[in-house]
Each structure stands twice: as C-alpha cells, then as structure tokens.
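Journal club prep — side note

Before the paper discussion, L.F. wants everyone to see what a predicted structure for a comparable chain looks like in token form. Sequence:
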Amino acid sequence: MGIYTRTGDEGQTSVIGGRVIKDDDRVEAYGTIDELNCFVGQAISFIDQANGEFEDLREHLLEIQQELFDCGSDLAFVKISESKYKVRDEMVIRLEQWIDQYDAENPKVERFILPGGSLLSSTLHVCRTVCRRAERRAVTLGQHTDINPSVRRYLNRLSDYFFVVARTANARQQVADIEYVRSKKVFRRKDKE
C-alpha cells in the first residue's frame, strides 16, 4: 500500500461517508484530537525515561490514546447510528475516578497554576490545552450536525484529568507547582483543609 494517494491535492479529504474540504469543522475536530494523541505519546516517552514512578500513569495514557482514536472515529462519520458509537459515558465516569485517585496525591492548591515544573508535567499541560481546543472544535462541529455527545463530555473531563496528572507528575518528582501569584484564592477544597 502506498502512503501517498494524491487524492487530497485539490484541498479535499475523505471522511467516512463522503468527501469534505480539509478545513471542514469535522476534519478540524478529529485532526485536533490526533494532535492531542501525539502529545500524549510524547508524555509516554518521557515516562519511559523515568525510574518507574509513573507506571500507573503510563498505563492510563496508553488507554487514553486508544480512546482518542475512538473519539476521532466517532467524529469522522458523516452519518452513523448511535449504536455504532465507540465513546460511551462509562469512559467519562472512569476518567472521573482516575482524577479523584491522582488528585488525592496532590498538595492543596488555592490559586491558578502556571504550566511548568518538570518536563513530564509541562507536556501534560500541553495535552490539557490541546484537549481544550479539541473540545471547542467538537462543540463547533456539533452546532450544525449531530455528533456523539459522549465525545464532548469525554474531552471535557479529559482536560481536567490532564490538569490533575500534570500536578501529580510534579508532586511525585518533588517539583513545586508554579502558582499564578496575581491570582486570588479560587480553589477551596474542604477535603484538603
């Protein structure tokens, strides 16, 4: 099989069920998810260079990579029956459980956090922001066509997950989060007081 087909040379690409221009909202949505998946792969590469302190995170990120492909697949269909969707709300619930698990390791936070700290944490913050953009692209797509609403919910929760695990990466490596010093105290967590 050849890598190049020349079918996109005129600015169109194939989606499941038709052809669209390459900057179509559908292509923007699943293309941003693909970009996010690349950064998740980069984060895994940094974990692979660590001393085994992130094996749980590595396992979760590998599962997330599979699920990001599912998200892209669900958005790539021009028409699809709900029974064919791959992304389900159970995946969102599981992300919430992971968020709670990792957040229990994190120090109390009261102010906004600046992206940074360790290399792994910085990369996970990049994942968070690209995930937010993917969510925005899915919202845009959903304004004029039916999409799997679980994809939107999944991406929303996934960005929260990346925020929490970026902090966990710093905590496990004993690197302090960088607080936004001009921020008022915006986070109040009774369970950590």
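L.F.'s comment for the group: Residues 12-179 form a domain with the Hypothetical Protein Ta1238; Chain: A; fold (CATH 1.20.1200.10). Keep this in mind when we get to the figures.
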